């Protein structure tokens, strides 16, 4: 899931721009929204090069996919409201992203009140544990989501995943001890991790091809909205030390909305086809994409199934085999680069950056962060289906690199104090904006698009599991690196990783806009044989 975040609660000591202060307690879950199982030194990247080379040599899709005549295409271009039938179903599923954003923000403000009431005030390790236990649950939830969706489908799996979300929120709200709070946070993470895998796949399989990217951006928008909502509600915690319990009770409400709403949402027509429920699949396609799309879509689905089989009986070991291993490697690498480009660290230090510039209100600084992410998500919604995924993610990482080098220059060179603070704020805002436009939402969007129908769920589970591991590692080592090397070298390394991510995206990604998932799978699989 492409996610966004807000700065952690902190007690200042050290900033990149002035004297020494107390290092803040780092919040390792600040992000949304993407390593592999093997070390890079033993990886053979030639399959990735072959992957891109094959796509470049084979721009034409199988003959089956050219069945639409010019009149059909012109009608599609004239009809610019084709997203409306699918929108309510995708909006309901995106409620899980709202939950993710809300649970990111819900702990940032009231953590001091929580620690005081439950008896671990001043213990930075336990405060960090309250935050990081969320990641442990999210890792397990992501790892198991692919298995569940293969067997239950998206509607039922998303409903099942609301159980730990609701129970976790209620248990946290009623917690009388640290143990109860930790169990509640773990359960919430379990549900969030599973939904982070499921929702991008659901959107990619339900959304019309022409609008798939824009609809996928709702994940990022949902996360931003959840963060902003939690920040707004957190204002009341300043006057009521027990308000955090009310906020956590409120966090259970979207879970009920998601569970009940998915009862009326459609199942993925691709999953229905794999499950042998063709009549239901045809009805869903007719309702969402139009009656004229039914026969062609079913023909494409069955062609892919005949060639590769459905994912109802796929195994994890298949991720080690071609062509699934290539996409899994690309997905894992994208999330490694995304996380080590420093989004969590920059968001974390942004509060100190604003403080040095005279914005001492932490909630106001966090609101600036949230609004910047929201603006970037809106830009992504508009651009992703117009400019394409690859161009957007490359431009995003280049913008992030420039932003980091701007901040490093402000820190390293002797400039006027006010100018230095202004350049630092400009670099921080620009970094978050460019991240929210491309690197955040596109990473979670393009992985299911490149994945085969058979292994899509498990590839996404693997990729997001990698994401949570890297998320945790950044949180674990960031402050130590700041203390040992200083802010400028660490931020400079974030800029270098951003450049590396741009090069990787240019070298190994292919453009997927305007092409159905079956078209993409057929064109990327050199072993595909057209159905008779």
The gist of it:
This protein has about 525 residues and is mainly α.
Radius of gyration: 23 Å
Give the strand tally.
0
- Main β-sheet description: none
Low-confidence stretches: 2-45, 57-70
What's the average pLDDT? 81
Helices and strands, in N-to-C order? HHHHHHHHHHHHHHHHHHHHH
Query: What is the terminal separation in angstroms?
Result: 38 Å
* Helical content (DSSP H or I, runs of 4+): over 70%
Helix and strand content put the structural class at: mainly alpha
Shape: globular
* Percentage of β-strand residues: under 5%
With helices defined by DSSP (H or I, 4 residues minimum), what is the helix count? 21
Q: How does this model look, in words?
A:
The structure is a single chain. With 532 residues, the chain is mostly helical. 71% of the residues lie in helices and 0% in strands. Helix 12 crosses helix 13 (294-308) and helix 14 (324-340) packs antiparallel against helix 20 (487-508). The two termini are 38 Å apart. 54% of the residues are buried.
């Amino acid at each position: 899931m492409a996610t966004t975040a807000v700065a952690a609660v902190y007690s200042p000591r050290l900033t990149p721009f002035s004297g020494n202060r107390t290092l803040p307690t780092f919040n390792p879950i600040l992000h949304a929204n993407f390593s592999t199982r093997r070390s890079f030194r033993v990886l053979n990247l030639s399959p990735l090069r072959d992957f891109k080379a094959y796509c470049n040599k084979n721009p034409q899709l199988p003959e089956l996919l050219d069945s639409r005549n010019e009149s059909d295409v012109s009608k599609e271009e004239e009809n610019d409201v084709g997203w409306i039938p699918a929108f309510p179903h995708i909006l309901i599923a995106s409620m899980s992203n709202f939950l993710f954003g809300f649970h990111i923000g819900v702990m940032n403000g009231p953590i001091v009140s929580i620690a005081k009431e439950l008896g671990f005030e001043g213990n930075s390790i336990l405060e960090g544990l309250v935050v990081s236990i969320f990641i442990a649950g999210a890792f397990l939830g992501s790892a198991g989501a692919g298995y569940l969706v293969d067997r239950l489908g998206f509607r039922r799996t998303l409903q099942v995943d609301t159980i730990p979300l609701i129970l976790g929120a209620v248990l946290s709200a009623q917690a009388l001890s640290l143990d109860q709070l930790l169990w509640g946070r773990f359960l919430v993470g379990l549900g969030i991790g599973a939904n982070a895998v499921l929702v991008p796949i659901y959107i990619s399989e339900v959304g019309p091809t022409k609008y798939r990217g824009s609809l996928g951006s709702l994940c990022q928008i949902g996360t931003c909205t959840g963060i902003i909502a939690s920040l707004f509600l957190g204002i009341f915690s300043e006057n009521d030390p027990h308000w955090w319990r009310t906020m956590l009770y409120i966090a259970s409400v979207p879970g009920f909305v998601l569970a009940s709403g998915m009862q009326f949402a459609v199942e993925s027509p691709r999953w229905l086809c794999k499950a042998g429920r063709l009549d239901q699949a045809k009805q869903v396609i007719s309702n969402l994409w139009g009656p004229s799309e039914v026969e062609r879509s079913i023909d494409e689905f069955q062609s892919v199934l005949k060639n590769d089989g459905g994912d109802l009986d796929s195994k994890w070991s298949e991720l080690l085999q071609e062509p699934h291993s290539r996409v899994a490697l690309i997905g894992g690498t994208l999330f490694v680069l995304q996380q080590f480009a420093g989004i969590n660290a920059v968001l974390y230090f942004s509060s100190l950056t604003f403080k040095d510039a005279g914005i001492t209100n932490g909630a106001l600084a966090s609101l600036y962060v949230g609004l910047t992410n929201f603006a970037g998500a809106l830009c992504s919604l508009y651009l992703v289906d117009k400019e394409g995924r690859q161009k957007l993610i490359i431009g995003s990482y280049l913008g992030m690199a420039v932003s980091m080098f701007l901040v490093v220059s402000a820190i390293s060179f002797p400039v006027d104090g006010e100018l230095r603070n202004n350049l630092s704020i400009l670099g921080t805002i620009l970094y978050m904006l460019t991240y929210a436009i491309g690197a955040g939402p596109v990473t979670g969007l393009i992985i299911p698009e490149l994945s085969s129908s058979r292994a899509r769920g498990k590839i996404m589970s693997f990729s997001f599991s990698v994401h949570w591991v890297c998320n945790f590692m950044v949180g674990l080592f960031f402050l130590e690196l700041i203390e040992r090397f200083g802010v400028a070298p660490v931020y400079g390394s974030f800029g270098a990783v951003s450049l590396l991510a741009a090069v990787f995206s240019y070298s190994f990604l292919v453009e997927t806009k305007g092409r159905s998932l079956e078209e993409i799978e057929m064109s990327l699989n050199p072993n595909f044989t057209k159905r008779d």
